[in-house]
Amino acid sequence: MFYVYILKSRKDGNIYIGFTSDLSKRLKEHNSGKTKSTSYRIPLDLIYYEAYKSRDDAEKREKMLKIWGRTLGGLKRRIKKSLES
Fold it and tell me: Strand order in 2-9's β-sheet?
């Protein structure tokens, strides 16, 4: 399985979008500071993920969420309460 995930920083409240084949391992990497793009934002909470059988599908979804503001905006509306906590 492949996962598209959203992390939220407890430090600054910003979100990070990524994809991986091992969600648990990737979350640990983020929170241990091993990921340059999020190391200054730790601790991070996993607030949302989607699972895909296809790597290509997961990569396409991650890109859509990162590039198309409308796509991310729709998802943010769906998970509004999760983003607030």
Answer: 15-20, 2-9, 44-52
Distance of CA 11 to the CA centre of its chain: 16
pTM above 0.85, yes or no: yes
* 52, two tokens: 């895909």
Q: Give pLDDT, residue 26.
A: 96
Give pLDDT tens digits for 51-62.
999 999 999 999
Helix 69-78 with 55-67: angle, nearest 10 deg? 100
Torsion sign, CA atoms 84, 29, 67, 71: negative
Phi, psi of 67 (to 5 degrees): -95, -45
